[in-house]
Amino acid sequence: MIGLKKYCYRVAVVLLLMLGAATGRGNNYDNYCSNDEMPSFLPLPPDSASVTLASDFAGWSWGHEMRNTTRGEQASWESRRGMVRMCTIFGDVLGIDITEETTPAIYRLMYRTGNTCMSNAEAAIPTYHRKRPYALMNEPVWGQFNSPEELQDDKSYPSSPMAYCWGTALALAEVAPHLQDTILRRGMEYGTSSVITGAHWPSDVDAAILSASAAIAHVHSKEQFLADLAAAREEYVALKGPAETNSYPSIVKILDAPLDATDYRFASDVAQYWQHKPLRNTELWTKAIANDSLTDSYLIGMLDACTPLHLSQSETPNIITFIKFTKFLLNIHATTLKKSIFRLRPYRLFGDKMPFSELSWKANVESSYPSRHAMIGWGMALALTEVMPDCQDAILKAGYDYGTSRMFLGASYASDLQAARVIASCDLAKLHTISVFSILLQRAKEEYQLKK
Fold first, then answer.
1. Which residues contact 193 (CB under 8 A, 6 or more apart)?
2. Which of 114, 41, 34, 33 is nearest to 392 (CA)?
3. Cβ-defined contacts of 335-342 (< 8 Å, 24+)
4. In this predicted structure, what is the pLDDT of residue 281?
5. How many CB atoms lie within 10 A of CB 82?
6. DSSP per residue over 327-344, as a string?
7. Which residue ranges make up each domain of the chain?
8. What distance, in Å, lies between the first and last C-alpha atoms of the chain?
9. CATH number of the domain at 279-452, out of 1.20.144.10, 1.10.10.60, 3.40.50.720, 3.40.630.10?
10. Using CA atoms in the order 95, 96, 97, 100, what is the torsion angle rounded to 10 degrees?
11. For the chain, N or C: smaller number of CB within 10 Å?
12. Could you give the CA distance from residue 316 to residue 81 in angstroms, rounded to a whole number?
């Protein structure tokens, strides 16, 4: 009987291997973790009563105009999902031919990372049941999609293909840091392509970036991911040579320029400013005033409320050091980015009185783009998610809300916040290549596991 069981098992294995060869997927790599372990925090999609929805319609209209252009051709090509497209897109950037046979480590990292991030996004979709643009606008599907089934009209938010691509881009930015700007730019373009085809609204893509960024932060706490990442980096260096850089991600290379009055999509930024202004006599306003603080003590207190430990220099010195160091690096980069592009703050553009006073001189002369608070809030939340994965949703919400407060104050536009959160996730990919950051992160992880 035992011999028969072994024989049947071997036959089954052979058949599975033959099937894998026939489908081009010889290895069925597992995700790095189950959806139950992954972060679930996401902001709600815009509803029909929100002026934020105007931004989505403006984005859809812009995408429609792009279809009969070279950019539209790119979007149509990218609408066909799967690893073949991912390998082509990022293989061109990395300067290598990515296949399971020739670059097994890089292929494995991309496959497992992409699927982990996509699965996490797909787990959120049933919560929202949001209609896709093409369905709501009653137009035919546009693009080279694999099958109509993948475009069910109530599966728009968040964009799972963008979660797949953005998670992959963040991982590859650690594999080849010297190409980080080009890798991350291609990741952003992939999301924009979904808007052009009418498969997703811009806010679906924004949500996918948040979801994938949080997912990548979480899998950094998994040994399998770290091992795959190290193997992929080693494989790339063996193929192409050293891949280090001292540069931080460039906002002007990764993102399009901020919107201005010459672009009709700017109307959404303006509308959201006016929508938040009447809330200045509410509890949200009081919280926003408090969140104007950028001091270490305030930020530590904000994060302390999300954890089972009491964060203090005496009780959790390694975690405190890690928080301060991460905040310092994010703040330095935010300062640099604000000098590269100047955008007048909303309250100044509309001639309003300064809604806060502590840093009035700085607010008057500093660019609103990208939002320093949103960049620090989301970046620190991602970093702490690696240290405390069991508190991830509370931490992510706190970091997200900290940045959102800037709209209540009239200090930043909605697009300033989103740009800041994108760059914060890019910064985390960069920080993981810095040895001091990695050492402090490991010490913080060990301290948390010891004391929780």
1. 74, 75, 78, 79
2. 41
3. 335/372, 336/248, 337/251, 337/370, 337/423, 338/366, 338/367, 338/369, 338/370, 338/372, 339/367, 340/251, 340/252, 341/251, 341/252, 341/257, 341/258, 341/367, 341/369, 342/367, 342/369
4. 80
5. 12
6. HHHHHHHHHHHHHHS---
7. 31-247, 279-452
8. 50
9. 1.20.144.10
10. -140
11. N
12. 45
DSSP three-state, residue 166: helix
Per CATH, 31-247 and 279-452 having the same topology is answered yes
Q: What are 190's two structure tokens?
A: 């992939």
Is residue 186 a contact partner of residue 176, using CB atoms and an 8 Å limit?
Answer: no
Mean pLDDT per 10-residue run, the chain (452 residues)?
Answer: 40 35 50 95 87 86 95 94 93 97 98 97 94 89 73 87 98 98 98 95 97 98 97 97 94 95 88 85 89 95 96 97 98 95 91 66 81 97 97 98 93 96 98 97 97 88
* Structure confidence at residue 19 (pLDDT): 34
CA distance 287 to 284: 5
258 SS3 class: coil
Cα separation, 160 vs 155, whole angstroms: 9
Give the single-character DSSP code of 56.
Answer: H
- Distance separating alpha carbons of residues 43 and 208, to the nearest angstrom: 11
Which pLDDT score, from 0 to 100, does residue 11 have?
37
- Amino acid (one-letter) located at 259: L
Residues 373 and 405: beta-carbon distance below 8 Å: yes
Cβ 378 vs Cβ 371: under 8 Å:
no
CA-CA distance, 374 to 400, in Å (whole number)? 7
Give the C-alpha distances (Å, rounded to integers) separating 54 from 61, 139, 261, 267. 10, 19, 15, 8
Any idea what DSSP says for residue 280? G
d(CA 63, CA 57): 10
- Tokens representing 176? 């080849």
Q: What is the largest CA-CA distance in the chain?
A: 86
> Residue 236 has which token pair?
């790339």
Give the C-alpha separation, 370 to 427, whole Å: 13
Exposure of 309 by Cβ count < 10 A (0-12 exposed, 13-18 middle, 19+ buried)?
middle
Which pLDDT belongs to residue 18?
Answer: 34
